[in-house]
Structures
1.
Amino acid sequence: MATTSPAKGGKILILPGDHIGPEVVTEALKILDIIEEATGAKFERDFDLCGGASLDKHKDSVTEAVLKKSEEADAVFFGSAGGPEWGHSQPNPESGLLRIRKRLQVFANLRPCNFASKALIHRSPIKPEIITGVDFTIIRENCGGAYYGEKTEEKDYGCDPWEYSRPEIERVARVAGALAMQRDPPLPVWSVDKANVLASPRVWRRITHEVFGKEFPEVEIRDQLADSLAMLLITKPTAFNGLIVTDNTFGDILSDESGGLTGSLGLLPSASLAGAPAAEGGDSPVLGRNNAGGVVGLYEPVHGSAPDISGKGLANPVAQVLSLAMMLRYSFNMHREAEVVERAIAKVLDSKDDGGLEVRTGDLGGTAGTREMSEAIQGEVRRLLKAG
Ligand SMILES: NC(=O)C1=CN([C@@H]2O[C@H](COP(=O)(O)OP(=O)(O)OC[C@H]3O[C@@H](n4cnc5c(N)ncnc54)[C@H](O)[C@@H]3O)[C@@H](O)[C@H]2O)C=CC1
Ligand SMILES: CC(C)CC(=O)C(=O)O
Ligand SMILES: [Mg+2]
């Protein structure tokens, strides 16, 4: 293991949100404490409300003051928003998150799907010979499409326009291209759409190919319809190893499917970025650079607020902790520490196979609670940082 990154840090706005959000955010921040202590990095933390918690206090899912604070931060660390008690009449809790994503223009939502630990392969509902080696990242357009169209909602009629324009498609295609080029050879990219039926996906496909043809000619770009991809991710998931760039709605749905592939949504992190992140040791990001020399980002698990298990100490903290690792890597250029966190999680999940105790939450077939799982990860992070 390489030594730690030079002491850094920056400003983080923390929005734990609702239900299991605060439970898993609390645990993830303990890992940040350990990293601060070991590296000398200083993270200024500001806590505020978003989602149902904000509706209860301010009658709005996110206030203008919080939106301003999110712009002033180097990164936003988010839990999850929503729950049955707030319903869906507008503004609902989820609208707060959508508004922050839009305000920060974090248009590229990276949602990796791979196994945090080899031992978990046998937890997947997919046969090991099919799922072993799966490793793709969905790059979901995060600030446009149907989630942001001007809505019409009447008693017996509803309409959500699904629109994309050239600049929105170009910028997310460029993030996909830049990330593909960070590997040698470049990663293959699948552009996923419904160009056989819908107009904006046809524009998406044409412009994506233009961008790759002109700016990333070395990258192999292929098209795949979203419906058949949903099927193929189950029958031949490793065929899509690499990057999948797609629109907001398809990316949301397909990334929950990733939770099915890996066996639990409690494992999957995400990073919503305002530009292409720099490779380790590479140049600073051009678009969306923050004051910490990384990229402006909002970090949250793929999962939601899981009201069915909240308040019981049962939630798996791994997705939130892996989101913290993504924050360290992309917004603070702390690649080494991000890797330490990821390795610590793998070590904990593999501990039984390595002759240790099994520490796994219920979603992974274990009996550990949120805190117990988190403490095991903290112990490994400490150990790995100490080992240098
Ligand atoms: N980014 C966000 O804030 C998101 C919010 N939501 C909101 O969350 C609420 C619940 O939505 P659902 O459809 O139930 O999706 P969900 O992702 O909250 O839960 C789906 C299933 O996965 C389980 N699960 C999720 N995270 C887990 C974890 N960390 N550990 C163990 N099990 C976990 C839940 O117990 C549940 O059975 C809704 O209000 C929804 O709108 C949904 C997705 C994203
Ligand atoms: C605004 C969110 C609730 C949408 C969603 O499900 C997600 O981003 O994963
Ligand atoms: Mg979702």
2.
Amino acid sequence: MQNFMNSQDPLSLDRIRSVLVRLEDTIIFSLIERSQFAHNPRCYVKGGISALKDQGFDGSWLQWFLKETETFQAKARRFTSPDETPFTAELPEPILPSLNYPKILHPNTINVNPSIMFFYVHNFVPRITHAATLSVAAANRARGIMGEGEFDDDGNYGSAATIDVEILQAISKRVHYGKFVSESKFQAHPSDFIPHILKPNRKALEALITKPEVERALLARLRKKAALYARELDMRGDPLETEVQTNGQLDSADKAQKAAGKGVFRVDVDTVEQLYENYIIPLTKEVEVDYLLQRLKGLSEEEITALQSSR
Ligand SMILES: C=C(O[C@@H]1C=C(C(=O)O)C=C[C@H]1O)C(=O)O
């Protein structure tokens, strides 16, 4: 991440892109970790875990996990940092005084976490947990358990939600970094952007911020990393002995994987690439455009004219 308190040039596009590259590692490793556990769909629906009613909480298990986690993090001042965006609506004030971060971004109201949560729950989780869910199904059938609800649930609700929160916060940071990317590109050529902000034109702004060669290189790098990291984790030996929660032995599916020299950390390279291509990159670009559309808010005509003539 960036230390905004003493960063030499926080808006250097190279420095910003290096943060995005490092976030790839966090996201891929966390997706691989999540792939060990079954889908556990009851964790993503309101009332799916009845114990929460006793806590007076009527959301899903994952929403409760996020609220509890972010409540502590808010007290520790996490969300005063310009690169942090919470999922939870109401959070307590920090117990520490605010740090005087340098003013890097223009004031804005952008928070696309509801979209990130939606596509994570409906598109990410089922795909990255597919192999583990099949293993649980085989183990349950072997124990005579038939019928829905038992086939995609291994009981690892705490472990899975802990990783879900890590993934959601990493994706949120990555997508909202689009604000820094946009500020950097705007400052480099304000006169390119200003006409399409004054007369809002999302298509023109998206064309200006889109760098196809950067996206192509990123997707190629992702495929290599996803394959390498999954193999690395398996070569450490322990995951192959991961006991699924059903007291299962390594079931036939896992034994087949082991025999084929593949591991239990089965995250599919195509899945990682498509999650970026279909969700993370497009959402990042929407944040870039949304930010640009708010970039002149509060500026006087003189300030805008000065920007237009600056570069
Ligand atoms: C993040 C940038 O802006 C856009 C979004 C990208 C992404 O989400 O990976 C990559 C290139 C651009 O199309 C950038 O220029 O680095």
3.
Amino acid sequence: MSNHKNPKPTPFSHPDPNDEIRRLNKIIDALMNRAERSMSSQGSDFSLFQTALMLEEKVTNRTRALEEALRDNERINRDLFRTTVEMQTEIKERQRAQVALTESESRYRSVTEAALDAIITIDEGNRISFVNPTVEKIFGYSRQSMLGQPITLIIPNQAPASTSGSLADYLSSQIGRLNREHLELTGRHRDGYDIPLELSFGEFETGGLRYFTAIARDITERKHAEALREGQYHILELIASDTPTEETLEALLRFIDHQHSDGRATIVLLADDGRTIERTLAPTFPDQYGNALCGLKTGPNAGSCGTAMYFAKPVVVSDVQESPLWAPYRNLGETFGFRACWSTPIFSAEGEVLGSLAIYHPDVHTPSAEEQKLVASAVHLAGIAIQRSRTEARIRHMAHHDVLTGLPNRTLLEDRIEQALAVARREDCQVAVMLIDLDRFKTVNDSLGHHIGDQLLRLVAERLQACIRRSDTMARLGGDEFVICMPALHDPEGPSRLAEKIISELSRYFTVDDLELHIGASIGIGFHPTDGDTPNDLLRAADAAMYAAKDRGRGNFQFFTQELNRQAHDRLMLITQLRQAIERQEFVLYYQPLVDIHEGRIVGAEALLRWQHPERGLVAPDQFIPILEETGLMVTVGEWVIDAACRQNAIWQADGVPPISLAVNLSAVQFYRSDILKTVQSALQRHQLDPQWLTLEFTEAVLFEETEPVIRTMHRMKQIGVGLALDDFGTGYSSLSYLQRFPVNRLKIDRSFLRDAEEHDGSADIINSIIRLSQSLGLISVAEGVETSTQLALVETLGCNEVQGYLFSKPIPADEFTRLLKSGLPSTLPLMCNH
Ligand SMILES: Nc1nc2c(ncn2[C@@H]2O[C@@H]3COP(=O)(O)O[C@H]4[C@@H](O)[C@H](n5cnc6c(=O)[nH]c(N)nc65)O[C@@H]4COP(=O)(O)O[C@H]3[C@H]2O)c(=O)[nH]1
């Protein structure tokens, strides 16, 4: 406020000077008017004039004085205004400062009141002078009871000795240090437990006294989280470093126990059946406890763990003496000193229950949120550890077992044979290795699909397993081959008895997907020491013997012989040579005429495969076709046959000879393992041959399983105009249903009937029936293997339509057949038309 020591007249009490001047001027004007008027009427009135002049001077002076006063007044007004404004500003500032102070105080109050951290002020003497409400919450004392008390009440001395142990000194020593805000100290709750604290603080002075204000944060949760993380890392390290699972799980249990001094943690593991407790890990319990749990089943009322695993949900039993879940096991609680038990299932990543983690408490207890968090994390880690060990075990198992049947695979088998050989050498006994190959399995697998084939193999494995002893090892080598190793053999008859049992067991039908499947087994047996001294030798011997069994008509067993050894070797050679034959195009077709009995002329021919072997000369198909079929090479060779036959027939037609239908043989594998329809269509197209000049011959093996795809393919063949002939009719199942369901045009009567017909009436009867059957179904009957006039006469009499056999011609090369086609059959043949 400005200081005016000499007060001036206040402008507000003074009359307006302008009014006064205006009033004086009016008087002067009036006087002057009177003087002028008297001068003009009576002469001059001097005194009046003088009075006016004097008055005017006075007025002038007065006016000056007034003007000066006016200026003064204005200045005073300005000063006053400024002073007033200054005063008002000062007042407003004071008011604002007051408001700000009040606001700041209330803000401070509300901040300290609401702060989640404890705010504590101590004086230099370490006495508490201020606490916010959070201090009450954290330390359990009332505010009032803390004020004036030494700080050691809530933060016991823990400062280094260099700072005399007092908190104030300690804090003072930390002032100016870079990391002082990260000061960690331990507080003490009224109930006596420790509270980890993180402190940040500042100092201030008032009234010449020094104070410290500390903001203390309760970091119990963070410390727990850190400990938990530390524990997790440790367990994960154990898992990663391939520590045995049980050791890892026990470390996990120790960690949980450490986190909860009152609790005792255990883990139970389920067996593969997912229902039985297989193993208990309870390091803080006596062994009897773990033993008592092993073998128990999960269920809706099976204690905490059994129930938790049954429902795949955590089960909290705060008092085992009261819970109905513990009714059957109450004595366990008393014997092993626990009252509460809560159990949490351990899951695999796929959600499968692997086991359960339980925490036992000596008193009635319900888990806190903190405990639940710990268990959730522990259960997760346990899941990883258990699953990892199971995965490893599974990988180990897979490396040594067949995935489909679960039987040992070749690796494990060889290992077992090796062990058996070692024992046999020591104890001077024998080892038998038996190779079982399923008969007709390939047909089932190819025709009904792998899904059925796989199921069948599993059933076979089960039946075989039931035949062997525990000391025997049974393995699957892949495909339909099973091997049994019989170690420490003292009874030389043992392997034959087992082989007979297996053959009889596998000849019983199997039911897969409501289908009745008939297979069989051919078995080869090799012995140590006679047939080999290594797993490989013995397997090779058994393999050779198995092929011998197959050659003898399947469904039997053979022992290995040196002769078989040679044959097995030859077989391997043959496979190699056949592969080369395909590459080197060593196959050729021979043609055998098909004669119409009534017209006496060649109406068709059968294309028959030959192998022009560079050393062995011409090889007949029965020497190599079975191997082509077994190895799958028949698909490639069969495609070549179809193509070559179509090409040759097109050449004949182009040559102008009367067109004939050329028949090619199809193997079952060609039906199942290739797109036969496409092969046929493209061959016809490639050689511009009308489909009516091609006939496909197949045996009943193709029809073994009447699958829809095979029936569909045949109908498509018929639709495009290709002829279909059923070969070797009468030798297989010869079911009438085949003939109804498959659209064949020709029935070829197997030549064995004709061969036997002269000696057995039965065969002639069969030929007769087949011809009748063909007639009734509107099919062309063909008699195969006609070698003599008598045979020809027989089939002719019985009404057969067509004949094929050495009587007319053996299978001959293409050029010879061309000549035969052109010349026609010799008229000397006893054909009806020649009579
Ligand atoms: N004893 C005697 N035999 C006669 C007479 N007339 C014909 N044969 C023989 O009977 C067989 C007829 O063929 P298949 O029954 O289809 O039986 C054929 C057929 O199943 C198969 N085969 C031949 N070529 C092929 C082919 O290209 N593919 C397929 N998948 N199989 C073929 O090989 C089998 C044997 O063929 P091949 O040795 O050529 O034997 C031929 C033929 O030489 C006769 O009067 N007396």
